[in-house]
Amino acid sequence: MRVRDLVEMTDLHLVPLTGDAGMDRPIRWVYTTDLLDPGRYLTGGELVLTGMMWRRGPADSAEFMSATSARHVGCVAAGDAAYGTVPPDLVEACAERGIPLLEVPVDVSFATITDRVIHLLTIERQGDLAEQLDRRRKLLAAVAEGAGLATVLRLWSEGSDVRCLLRTATGRTPVADADPGDDALGGVLAERFLTATSLPQVVVTTDAGAHSLFPVDVRSEHRATSWFLACEGDFREWPRVRHESVTELASLLALERERIEEGRRADRVVAEQLFRLVVSGRSTREEIAGRLAEFGLADQPYVAVSASLLPVADGQLACRILDEVLATVVRDGRTLVSAVDDEAMALLPLRSDAVTELLRAQAGALAPAMADGRLLLGLSLPTSGPDGLGAALSEARQARTLAELRGGTVAVLATDEIDSHALLLATVPDDVRRTFLARVLGPVIDYDQRHGSDLTATLEAFLAASGSWTACAERLHVHVNTLRYRIRRIEELTGRSLASLEHRVDFFLALRAR
Question: Over the stretch 328-352, which tens digit does the pLDDT of each residue have?
Answer without folding.
Answer: 777 666 678 999 999 999 998 887 7
